[in-house]
Amino acid sequence: MAIKLPIENDILPIPSANEALKEVLRTRRSVKILDFDSTHGPNFDELHDILALANRVPDHGKIAPWRFIILQDEARQELGAKMADILKAKTHNMDENHYEMEKRRFLRAHSVVIMISSPNIHHPKVPVWEQELACGGLGFNITLAANAFGYIATWLSEWPMFDDDIKSLLKLYANERIAGFFYIGKTNKNPIERERKSVDNLIQVWK
Question: What domains sit in the chain, N to C, each tagged with a CATH number?
Answer without folding.
Answer: 31-190 (3.40.109.10)
